[in-house]
Amino acid sequence: MEFVPYLPIRFDSTDVIASINETKMNGKAAVCIQFVTVRGEERNPGDVCIAKENATVIEWHDRDHSFQALEYRSVKDALLPSHFIYREGEKLVIDATVRWTLLDARPDDAFVAPEDWRQAFYCKSFSMPVPISAPQPAAKGGVDAPVITIEVRVHVRPDGTVGKAEVLKPVRDDLDSEAVELVKTWTYQPGACEGRNQDFAIDAAVHFQGR
């Protein structure tokens, strides 16, 4: 799913519906929903347009992402996107054409789980990890010194410690390594699913000033 970031649209208690309007897209009747996702002080406006004929997602946008489904294909009575475009801001991330093949029998190697697979949980109520101690590197060169930011994916254990950290987009080898080692010392209030602490993967930023 990291390479094919398509998910069915689902609203929850963090989403405030602003309006629901009927329109036409690609010559077909559609319904567009404008909403704002509220998480703490953050406000993220978005919209999603859905075909009235079959309830498939035509387009979906928020402040930083957009998804456009150009074609769908019926596979065993399910409509799955066969051509879609995904952007992050103005950057094109994926323009994919997906080919689905229905086999008479399942091959022996089909759907083999990776050795390090982990079970996923659907949580009706959950809380994300909250940093307790997450120090940044000491700044150098004064307040006007340039800042280099390293984005890190942090795997938080149920006890609030960091089990693994990995750089999302390498910037500079020495700073990448230092960022990973620093993040491994951070501690969190653990994330929970249905009231029970669980492993969570979240993204964080490490800022190097004057480096």
Largest sheet: 7 strands, antiparallel
Domain module count? 2
Q: Could you give the distance between the termini?
A: 35 Å
Count of DSSP strands: 15
The proportion of strand residues reads: over 45%
Query: Can you count the helices?
Result: 1
Please identify which CATH superfamily of the largest domain we are dealing with. TonB
Q: Would you identify the CATH architecture of the largest domain?
A: 2-Layer Sandwich
CATH fold assignment of the largest domain: TolA/TonB C-terminal domain
- Global morphology: globular
What can be said about this structure in brief?
The chain is mainly beta. The protein has one helix and 15 strands, in the order βββββββββββαββββ.
